[in-house]
Amino acid sequence: MIGKLESRRILITGAASGMGREIARLFSREGADLALLDRDEAGVKAIADELSAKAFGCDVADRPAVGRIVAAAGEALAGLDGVVNAAGILDITPFDDLDPDSWDRMIAVNLTGPFNVVKAALPFLRQAERATIVTIASVSALMPMPGTSGYSASKAGVAMFTKCLGMDLGPNIRANSICPGVIRTEMTRFLWENPEHTARATERVSLKRLGETDDVSRAALFFSTEDSGFTTGTELPVDGGFSWR
Ligand code: NAI
Q: Is residue 66 part of a domain?
């Protein structure tokens, strides 16, 4: 059977763990050639070895390094047809106690990181016949939650950034965001390892469960193929019915 991403060359950030890693596995099964980027060098090498992909250790907030590494990734794959921005960090702290350095870091990684990556990938994406950009934002881009002023600001920013890319980069490049609810990854281990926290987190979710990484990877696949060929500049909640708006 021919995969949905056969001969597509895709760069995935945050690929050493969680959603980025699951997206890498699904995209590989669908036939994509992958360049995987993460600041966790050992982790990204492990998944790249598993999938016969190219591994790149890099902090998405380090603009000069991203410029060099994304160029190297594009050279290694002889072009890029798509980017998935999954690298991200979370600090849940009430605003009174939020450290300004933590604010700066969340904006640098979650918002400026995708800017750096897309900017560096653009010359390659422009060469592709039909290119795609997928950003993992969050339900925090859509609604306020306690203690998430910095995280939510970064995610609302990156969702609007991606929407604007949809407008600026058409017609040959499409850009969409995914807004996951709570997904069981390392980032949320503190929550799902605690039954009380899990019960509270699922209470408001219509589908009465937390999300899994494959709930998100399938949405990323949709946005990276012609199945979504007439869709750009959108934010898709993948949250079991939590953000309702
Ligand atoms: P995770 O912690 O399992 O994976 C995040 C990956 O990003 C890690 O491999 C980490 O090393 C990498 N990373 C972090 N900062 C980086 C940087 N500066 N440069 C390069 N790589 C970096 O987390 P998860 O849950 O898979 O998160 C993926 C994305 O989904 C993030 O953007 C996160 O904000 C977002 N998200 C997560 C939700 C959840 O419930 N887990 C819900 C909504 C959004």
A: yes
Residue 154 Cβ contacting ligand 1 at under 6 Å:
no
Whether the per-residue pLDDT at 245 is higher than 80: the answer is no
Name the burial class of residue 153, with classes exposed (0-12), middle (13-18) and buried (19+) by CB atoms within 10 angstroms of its CB. middle
Dist. CA 9 → ligand 1 center (Å) = 22
What is the total count of domains within the chain?
A: 1
128 — pLDDT class (breaks 50, 70, 90): very high
pTM greater than the 0.90 cutoff:
yes
DSSP bridge pairs for 55: 36
Question: Would you say the CB of residue 188 lies under 6 angstroms from ligand 1?
Answer: yes
30 lies in some domain: yes
Q: Does residue 194 lie within any of the structural domains?
A: no
Q: Does 29 qualify as catalytic in the annotation?
A: no
Give domain status of residue 105, yes or no: yes
Whether the per-residue pLDDT at 93 is higher than 90: the answer is: yes
Expressed as residue numbers, the domain containing 15 is: 9-183+212-238
Kindly name the residue from 27, 103, 151, 242 that is annotated as catalytic.
151
Q: What is the whole-number distance in angstroms between the Cα of residue 212 and the centre of ligand 1?
A: 14
The CATH number of the domain where 15 resides is what?
A: 3.40.50.720
Buried-exposed string 171-210: b where 16+ CB fall within 10 A, e elsewhere:
eebbbbbbbbbbbbbebbeebbeeeeebeebbeebeeeeb
> At residue 80, does pLDDT exceed 90?
yes
